[in-house]
């Protein structure tokens, strides 16, 4: 229902040969994410015992081919440490050091496929990797490789993460990664392998790419459990993304999920029902978008909150939709400009008929009450309108069924969802 100028805020494989200016009710003005870079810290060793082995065989360690190969140059700073081990073997330890012997922290993937540094390596720098593993016969294998990373590339792809550390979000908050330009379909699997999400308590999840590759969402089969900690790292710095371009930076965030708070709007009754931790806490009349500018049906989440703002739609192609209006308690639901907001001018219509330009109109009292309780990421489901929510028009991860959602992953997703990579 209005527009104002936006404010700027915007993981090689270990080869085991066995295996906004706001636009109210119209317009597309999105706030770009900015988050702190960095990586997760962790031990660089993993212990394992080969099944069916009575213990290590005697004799000198068998040679182990480490990847990157010894003497390799111009390796991306996203390089992971891997090795070739006989079928059925396991890696027990990975050590990566700088030229002066300083250890580099990292983590071994849960599937044992590779060891991932906890932060991007330095450009134009020499490293030494030592990998120790145990073969299926119990023999110890070890190998060492010294390699050098590439110079900083000139051509990079920007990325963003709509998640900030030390903040609390609603149970519907998806992890949202953004890319400019978008990632082509053929390159998405490699990118997705470098996008890590860990949840505490553990909950499986999956990634879903928008068709144009500009955004990818991560969510669980159901809303997050209240109190969950989300630890996210988009480990994309130096990753070859597409067309000779590399990722520009790592982005990471650790955030909390708060209490369960959910809003449901039914066009048939023109009412919103509000639930907190499963209990109904309030019912309020609403007025939705009129037939010429209908509200979207689907599950959205609160993306942004403005206690007071101005909706300006004077550039709308339809003169009938042009106006400048002061708005209180505005909560963005879509990039296209749908909000929940106070609409004292439509109180008489609320609960009876739709008169808005696509927004969810409520009284000032109800708008203030909602605004004081909602979090970014709280879900709202609207049903029964003349328009279906378009994918990508907001953080639309929850507007898809779980089978539909996992179909958008660039990598296979196990039934029930993918566990954490580490």
UniProtKB/TrEMBL annotation:
Family matches, as Gene3D superfamilies: 2.60.40.3710, 2.60.40.3780, L,D-transpeptidase catalytic domain-like
Region annotated Disordered, chain positions: 32-66
Domain L,D-TPase catalytic per the UniProt entry, residue ranges: 261-383
Keywords: Acyltransferase, Cell shape, Cell wall biogenesis/degradation, Peptidoglycan synthesis, Signal, Transferase
RNA-binding listed as a keyword: no
Domain of life according to the entry: Bacteria
Keyword Cell wall biogenesis/degradation found: yes
Active site: 341 (proton donor/acceptor), 359 (nucleophile)
Biased composition (Low complexity): 44-57
Signal peptide: 1-23
InterPro entries associated with the record: Big_10 (IPR041280), LD-transpeptidase (IPR050979), LD_TPept_cat_dom (IPR005490), Transpep_catalytic_dom (IPR038063)
Pathway terms, separated by semicolons: Cell wall biogenesis; peptidoglycan biosynthesis
Entries under PANTHER family matching the protein: L,D-TRANSPEPTIDASE, L,D-TRANSPEPTIDASE YCIB-RELATED
Name of the protein in its database record: L,D-transpeptidase
Organism: Micromonospora solifontis
């Amino acid at each position: 229902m209005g527009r104002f100028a936006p404010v700027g805020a915007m993981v090689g494989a270990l080869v085991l040969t066995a295996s906004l200016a706001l636009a109210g009710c119209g317009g597309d003005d999105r706030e770009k994410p900015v988050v702190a870079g960095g990586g997760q810290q962790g031990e660089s060793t993993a212990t394992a015992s080969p099944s069916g082995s009575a213990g290590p065989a005697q004799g000198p360690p068998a040679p182990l081919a480490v990847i990157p190969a010894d003497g390799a140059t111009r390796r991306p700073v996203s390089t992971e440490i891997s090795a070739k081990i006989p079928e059925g073997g396991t890696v027990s330890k990975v050590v990566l050091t700088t030229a002066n012997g300083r250890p580099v922290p990292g983590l071994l993937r849960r599937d044992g496929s590779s060891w991932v540094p906890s932060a991007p390596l330095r450009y134009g720098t020499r490293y030494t990797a030592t990998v120790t593993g145990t073969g299926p016969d119990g023999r110890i294998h070890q190998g060492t490789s010294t390699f050098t990373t590439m110079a900083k590339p000139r051509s990079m792809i920007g990325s963003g993460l709509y998640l900030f550390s030390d903040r609390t979000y609603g149970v519907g908050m998806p992890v949202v990664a953004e890319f400019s330009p978008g990632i082509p379909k053929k390159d998405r699997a490699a990118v997705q392998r470098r996008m890590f999400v860990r949840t505490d308590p553990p909950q499986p999840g999956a990634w879903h790419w928008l068709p144009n590759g500009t955004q990818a969402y991560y969510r669980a089969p159901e809303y997050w459990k209240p109190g969950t900690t989300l630890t996210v790292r988009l480990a994309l710095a130096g990753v070859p993304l597409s067309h000779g371009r590399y990722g520009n930076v790592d982005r990471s965030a650790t955030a909390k999920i708060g209490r369960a708070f959910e809003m449901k709007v039914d066009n048939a009754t023109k009412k919103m029902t509000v639930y907190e931790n499963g209990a109904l806490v309030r019912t309020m009349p609403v007025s939705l978008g009129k037939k010429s500018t209908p509200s979207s049906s689907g599950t959205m989440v609160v993306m942004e909150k403005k206690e007071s703002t101005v909706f300006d739609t004077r550039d709308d192609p339809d003169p009938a939709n042009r106006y400048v209006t002061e708005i209180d308690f505005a909560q963005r639901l879509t990039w296209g400009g749908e909000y929940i907001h106070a609409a004292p001018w439509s109180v008489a219509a609320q609960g009876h008929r739709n008169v808005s330009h696509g927004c969810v109109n409520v009284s000032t009292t109800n708008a203030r009450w909602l605004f004081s309780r909602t979090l970014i990421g709280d879900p709202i489901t609207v049903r029964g309108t003349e328009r279906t929510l378009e994918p990508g028009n907001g953080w639309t991860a929850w507007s898809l069924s779980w089978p539909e959602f996992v179909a958008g992953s660039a990598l296979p997703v196990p039934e029930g969802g993918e566990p954490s990579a580490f």
